[in-house]
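Hello everyone,

My group is preparing for a crystallization screen and wants a predicted model to guide construct design. The compound we'll soak is flavin-adenine dinucleotide. Before spending weeks at the bench, it would help to have a computed complex in hand. I've included the protein sequence and the ligand's SMILES below. Output in structure-token form would be ideal because that's what our pipeline reads.
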Amino acid sequence: MIESAYETYDVAILGAGFEGGLLGTILARQGAKVLLIESGTHPRFAVGESTVRHVFRMLKIIGERYDVPEIIEKFSSADSIHKHVTTMCGEKRNFGFVYHREGQDQNASECTQLVIPPFREGYEAHLYRQDIDSFLTYTAINHGATVHYRTSIADIDIQDDGCTLTSSQGDVFKSRYIVDGSGYRSVLAMKFRLREEPSRCSTFSRSLFTHMLNVTPYDATVTPRGAHGMPQPWYSGTCHHIFDGGWLWVIPFNNREGSTNPLVSVGLQLDPRRWPKPRDVTPEQEFHHFLERFPSMAAQFEKARAVRDWVSTERIQFSSKRTVGDRYCLMAHASGFIDPLFSRGLPNACELINALAVRLLRAFKDDDFSPERFDYIERMQQINLDYNDRLVNCAYISFKSFELWNAFFRVWVLGVGLGDLRLTSAHRRFTATHDESVLPDAEEPMGLFFAHHTGYKKLFEEACDKVEAFEAGTVSAHDAARHIFELMAAADYAAPANHLADPSKRYVDQGETVTVLKTVAWLLTSAPPDIKKMGGGILSDLNPRRLMSRKVTPEPSAI
Ligand SMILES: Cc1cc2nc3c(=O)[nH]c(=O)nc-3n(C[C@H](O)[C@H](O)[C@H](O)COP(=O)(O)OP(=O)(O)OC[C@H]3O[C@@H](n4cnc5c(N)ncnc54)[C@H](O)[C@@H]3O)c2cc1C
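Reply:
Good plan to model first. Here are the tokens for the complex, ready for your pipeline.
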């Protein structure tokens, strides 16, 4: 038995991944006695690579709120990670969606793109998780956390006065509280039978993924070059090849200047009701058989080779009846998961950690761990799952028709765009005052980034109703799409310069000079008061130097 067995830690965190490492860092920095227990070691492969605005905005808030210099200086933008943490990550300048029909060449007029403007945090990132997760764990250690690798917890006993954890090797650890960051196979979910069987989620997908070498930038396979007429090359962001019943991600790590990583993350999501899992082929064979049915996608992978074994899963959705109990809490990825579409995993993780850390620190101080004190965490995790499920499920339904996807795409774009504005406003106010009442966890959790807004909530629900009616066969794709465009036209809280109600404008680029100027003018003058309020201070965010030097990423052949 090891020496430290009978020390009592404030918290035992299971799993030293993104979530465990980040929470461990914060709590240790704040003086808590932290034990991290990890069944593997670093470096280790993990997916969860593509970020959205919410991730770095939340990290900035977390860094300031919990006074963690490493997060502020090294871990709150793609640039700072590249400079201070690792040169192995890629860059994400857009969310690209290319629509494919089985057996046909891709039609260049069927695509949509959300361009990420370089304001504030700069561009988004493709995180090479093995470097990111080890950085977070080492930072936790640097602040005093104790880490045990290659330690699997076989049994947990939770009493009124504390918790006892026993590893499969017989080591014993004691803590006042347990946070489970061990992901899908969550130790606590298994022990307390917290999983819903079957899951309540409507989304239905399975996944196949790996890292590859020699993936040709999709742009280089398109003739004539630039035929899609999008502002950014597909390869400069996360490319989603979408089709009836699923989508394929392409997340390059080699697309940023100075990257030292030749790899590209590739993952195929399939609805098993449409694409049943074959039992007689390897995952790699299944991937290649799939590509034979989509000639334009196949061109991107002609020379590609996997550098590690493919992972092939069963259904990836899971949910939990409860996520908080006596002296324990499940983290975001241990609580439930929908699908990688729209990259909601890491933002959920950051939102949860921001809200959980402050509640834990108070509980340590008061020596009171009653579950009611963590009730907010429970509500947040459940509502995040439900809203994200509806969003993703409707996106999958809309993949049956490009016209419908082109409409539904905007429902998501509007929500993330306004959600960014809202979070930026909270961050700005928090930086100025350090008043915690302006932070997201002071409000009732909302599930989507902008679902508190009555106009957007209504639009979201009506749009989803239409998409679901299309699935039920009571409305055509054309009529459902038309209805969504009408909702967009009526949304006076959406910046008109983005032309969300115009089906022929298939991209949104907030970084275009004309769009920026028009949007800022609208925000300062004719936007509804609540939106105008969030836009206060926006001029200082625009960073004219960055905007002026905004250039399209290099031609793919030069990458
Ligand atoms: C196919 C797929 C693609 C995804 N893509 C994205 C994306 O692009 N963007 C995004 O934001 N999110 C994405 N996600 C979600 C994302 O992966 C998670 O949100 C994120 O990885 C959560 O990090 P984590 O540290 O909680 O969990 P994990 O990364 O799963 O880490 C769990 C840790 O716990 C350890 N562990 C497991 N069991 C035990 C045990 N018994 N005892 C101790 N330690 C244990 C593991 O070794 C691991 O280190 C994706 C998810 C999937 C399934």
